[in-house]
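Thread: Modeling a multi-component assembly for a lab meeting

Hi all, long-time lurker, first post. My supervisor asked me to bring a structural picture of a complex we are working on to next week's group meeting, and I have zero experience with this. I have the sequence lines for every component (725 residues in total). Could someone generate the structure of the whole assembly? Inputs are pasted exactly as I received them:
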Amino acid sequence: MKKPEKLIENGKRLDGRVPDEMRPLKIEAGILERADGSAYVELGANKVLAAVYGPREMHPRHRQQPDTAVLRCRYNMAPFSVDERKRPGPDRRSVEISKVTREALESVLFLELYPRSVIDVFIEVLQADAGTRTAGINAASVALADAGVPMRDMVSSIAVGKIDDTIVLDLTKDEDQWGTTDMPIAMVPRKKLVTLLQMDGHFTKEEFGQALGLAFKACEQIYGIQRQALREKYAIKQEK
Amino acid sequence: MLYVQNRELVVPGQLIAEGGYNVREGAFREGKQVYASVVGLAELRGQDIRIIPLQGRYIPKPGDVVIGVVVDSYYSGWILDINSPYTGNLFVSDLLLRKVDLVREDISQYLSMGDVVVAKVKDVNERMRVQLEAGEPGMGRVKGGKLVEISPAKVPRVIGRKGSMLNTLQDVGECKLRVGQNGRIMIWGKNPRMINAVVEALLMIEREAHISGLTDRVHLMLEKIKSEGGE
Amino acid sequence: MYEIVSSVRRDYIADLAREGKRIDTRTMDQFREVSVEVGPIKSAQGSALVKVGKTQVVAGIKVEHAEPFPDKPDNGMLVVNAELLPLASPTFEPGRPSENAIELARVVDRGIRESNAIDLDKLVIKSGEDVWAVFIDIYVLDHDGNLIDASALAAIAALLNAKPPEDEAWTLPEFPIHKRPVAVTVAKINSKLMIDPCLDEEGVMDARITIATIEDGSICAVQKGGIGCFSREELEQAYEMARAEGAELRAKLG
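Re: Modeling a multi-component assembly
Sure thing. I ran the full set together rather than chain by chain. Output:
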């Protein structure tokens, strides 16, 4: 697709959304049988699966921490998840995302309750349309809760950016590609603490503040959907 | 001030109460507020707040009866997988309840790899090293029967108040059960159809542990299968 | 990492097998419930999500330009890759494909290639320089046994669902797929043959044999796995089971 003339026209974006509108978000908890906890997230056209194993025995032994569990995170994209087939295996981008995802989740977990063990989080992107790392974090939070890992709160995540000099929420692939700024954020909603923040592009100080405000509001919404997904897993069975 | 009701389903980060309550498992305190740390059912008794988790791995504590599988051995004992992030260690002297002359005796005659063992958690140290013992009557190597694994969080429901669910399973199901706190359950019985019925009942308990009236539903389900008797 | 099967479970399954029974009350020639959902992944040219009991596998097709093999200048390419994702089982570790992942991919590949299900010679753009490569990526999401059959079914379902790439170099009216190879795996436990081993059965089986057949009952791929062995009679019995069940599974492809 060639770069469109405008990315926002009459207040509407390419997909019809207004600037502070998120794409439709759907979350389902506990969809895998073998994993200790799991969650499936659809954010617009993104389809992301997260699974948690743990706490479990940590191998190799020398990596065990005597007084705490270790959190390991792997973000991975399926070869068929993007337009041009991606070769299987971690690339540099996946390695970086795995790291910042782990750092976004770690502080809410009560890791000290499980010395010498490991908690593994696996995030698989089945279909991508920008914002996969934010969808991944939303899924991972739910998967961790689904696994029964004690946590202080969920972690909710969304991206903000700038297209045609307008601050917008939750960029699509096209907006990310043709826009000027992309900033994924993750936060602990209850205390409004940011645990992931990355930005590439350009923001003035005011724009940055505006973007943060948009993100915080969206994360509140996401938080509600995450908690609802966990409740629904048990509610459906109640109706039977 | 309480913000949830007894037996309400809560999620991590949810505000449970404010004030001077005793915070037991599944919850934590931040200043004056008490929040849930797991997905579970709130249990509010007097000043105690506890969240019964609906999911989670088994973490051994002393006194627990567990069902383990031998995964390794060394000259004076065995390592057991107890369905936990932590393995259990069983010395041969804690199995036989006597001193063993390791020069004369070959301990592999007592347990081999893959053997299923009913044991009790003797001790857990701060590094989570777990010591097991299996000398009491009714413990030790298991022969025959069917081994089932369910979520350890649902084990209290399998036992029920004053053992009511367990009695139902054994009486109506015509089987003998040994329940490990670690989510593993041994079933012995003469009738394979009833053994399968008890397995179905255990899976039903696992799915519906958070819904009341479960003991009656299990009773009904087992009665139905029993009355459909005849191959 | 490997999982230790307890002696109790091993004995229980073996005892049941002796009586011609199975741990989940299926008969020896009964497959678990199979569901095939086509097209869940829009970023792929074709895709399918297959569930066999609790096992879940998704396959995605990507079609791209490629240079042909020097000795096959007039043939498109078929590449099958399988990932045993760590999220599918506590025993799967991240990293390079294990021998199980590679075997899985190669068996699925054989079924499709040897049956000539895809007319690779129609996938030429410019002889010797530019051809279409069909990538089938198999993603195992949840492992409850019999990944080969689930993966093979997902692969063929995805191919049948494939739409041509949005590329002016594509000149064919539709995707050139003309056969439906279906793989069926038979496990041997205590001298009894049973179809579609679930996870517990895989843990105790002596051996397994996977047979892929096409519409006319002819065989396009066979793979024996496990350290046990099969007698001639057992192989013939397994073929009959695979052919019959293959037809049933093929019907699910629509």
